Structures are given as structure tokens and as C-alpha cells.
Prior knowledge:
Layout: E1 3-7, E2 23-25, E3 31-35, E4 39-44, E5 49-51, H1 54-65, E6 80-83, E7 90-93, E8 99-101, H2 117-139, E9 149-158, E10 165-174, H3 178-187, H4 189-196
Antiparallel strand pairs: 1-3, 2-5, 3-4, 4-10, 6-7, 7-8, 9-10
Helix pairs in contact: 2-3
Amino acid sequence: MSIRYRRLLNINERPRTNANTAHHFQQPSWLSRINNTQIFTCYIHPIMIFAVRPSVRAAARQSVFATQRRTVISLAKTVATASGAGRNGSTKLDDGSLDIGLATPKEMGGSGQGNNPEQLFALGYASCFLGALQLVAKNKNVKLSDDVKIKAAVSIGEVKGSGGFGIGVELTAIGADASLVHEAHTVCPYSRILKEGAEVKLNVK
Length: 205
């Protein structure tokens, strides 16, 4: 079994510091692992940047995200609103088509009497990856079996060695050709955002 690791973000420059500017800069370690059993694993680690001066913080942020920003021309947009007690509150789509009560998993000390963000992420990733796989097959004039399935396992936990929380994703393709699955991994928007990152615009009202 061959396993290939690829570092997704490589920070060559760190912001300058002096005695009057204390800051901590931690290099992210987003990794994508692909092996020949058709299982893909992506780990997301939090990026922590603390700086006293805004100029230092801005320089650090620019260094981190310079390689991952992508301009997306929107074709469709979904808006969701979360309220209540965070991971024990509720979230709903603004068009009224979905309203979900949330609960922290029992493994994390919660009641487990509801859904959680990782479950919603798994649902979206599995369906999106299957769509990407079907698109790749169609473009290659390959007939996919109706029995092809994608399983997405999403976990949350503490990031070993650096603290904070991160998520782990494991995708399993069932009944599909490995070469098509590998190519779908480069096409699926969920896979791309995990590998390449995305620009997030924050609005405060």
C-alpha cells in the first residue's frame, strides 16, 4: 500500500518581531493523504495568529492565505442561520426548507439528542463527491453503476500537538474505479476547499 503526503500550505516567511511586539505564529499542517484503497483522508488544523500590532497580524494573515485564495463566481447560494446555544441550539435555512435542532454528541459530554455540524458536513460531502464522480465518469464516457456509493466519515477532536479543535474526514468509494475516484477528488468542491482553502468574508452587523 502506497501512501503519499502533500503539504497544502507552505509558509516561507514569518512576520518580523521585536521586543515590543510579542506574537505567536503557528504553521498550519493541512495534509491530504491518498492511498490505493480508495480512501481519502483530509485533516484540518486550526490556524492561530496572535499579534499585538495590526500590521504584524495582517502580514501573517497575508502570508498564510496567499496560496489558498480563490475567486468563486457564484452560480447558486444557500444561506443558513444558527441561533440559540451554539452546538446545542438550532440551525435553519433562510428559505424555510430545513430547520434542525442541534445537540453535542454524547462522546463530548452532550445529550446526543439532535444532529451536529459534523453530521451535516458528512451529508454534504458524500453527496457532492458522488456528483463529482458522476461528472468525471460522464466526461470520460464511462457508465457508472447505480450501486456506486460514497461514505463520508467526519470526526471532531483535539489537534494533537497544537491544541484546539480540528476535523478529520475519511471518504470511502464503493463500487467505483480508482482512477475515477482520484480525479473526482480534484473536482469535488468540498475536496477542493479542504485542499486549497477558501476566502471567508466576515460581516458584523
